[in-house]
Amino acid sequence: MSAAEGPPLLTRAAPGCATLTLNRPRHLNRLHREDLLVLQGQIAELATDTSLRVVVLTGRGRLFCAGFNLEELAAPEPDDTASSDPQLFERTVDALEGLAIPTIARLNGSVFGGATDLALACDFRIGVQGMELCMPAARLGLHYYPSGLQRYVSRLGLSAAKRLFLLAQTVGADELLRIGYLDALVEPDGLDAAVRSMTEALLAGAPLALAGMKLSTNEIARGDINPSRLRERVDRCARSADLREGLLAMAARRTPRFRGQ
């Protein structure tokens, strides 16, 4: 492995924005236990950053991600308790979904195995023409973990989830757009512009409203509705300085300056 490759990178190129980059291009960005632990730490760091408004997840090289490193799946468990956690992958993906900050998966290429769920845990997915997806769990003898199955069914529907899991079909970009896995499909040279456009749309929103509605819609999708918690988010936004600013800006026909308060 070259010195330039290793665990995921966390960068902050613009105010309010952060990028997580899978960083093993020579091995198609396959995910090692080490990578998952680093991702968990990075996600925890992002969760506490009150200035953050958008997170982009992407990969280096020609693939977004080839999934979990199957050599480690078959290998003896390491001595380190955190690394040997059998739910390590599931916990990492759930942590990404649990971020209150809106997330965009910048799918620079094909996506396989567990990486399909990693991208699905993001709020939006922008893919490129020529990419493919395959979930080979059934052909490996794996029963996929519960929260991943739930994400597939709640986001894509039962028929699409069964097709992808049970038939283990390789699905092309146009079909991924049709079934709702992708929110947008562009030529490779248009990927950055599409991500930038979506990022700008998210940056234009009020942070409290975005965070509250993201968490609430995810909870509704997985059947985890807590009316009191949802009402608390509604009431917090109704009392917020952001709402007052939004109404004033609309009346004055100017761009609002939200502060997340």
Describe this entry's structure for a reader:
This protein is α/β, with parallel strands linked by helices and 261 residues long. The chain folds into two domains: 9-202, 2-enoyl-CoA Hydratase, Chain A, domain 1, CATH 3.90.226.10; 206-252. 46% of the residues lie in helices and 14% in strands. The protein has twelve helices and nine strands. It has helices at residues 33-47, 70-74, 88-98, 115-120, 137-140, 146-156, 158-166, 173-178, 191-203, 207-221, 227-238, 241-252; strands at residues 9-14, 17-22, 54-59, 103-106, 111-112, 124-128, 132-134, 171-172, 184-186. The strands form two sheets. A six-stranded mixed beta sheet has the order 1-2-3-4-6-9. A three-stranded mixed beta sheet has the order 5-7-8. α10 runs antiparallel to α11 (227-238). The termini are far apart. The model has no long low-confidence stretch (mean pLDDT 93).
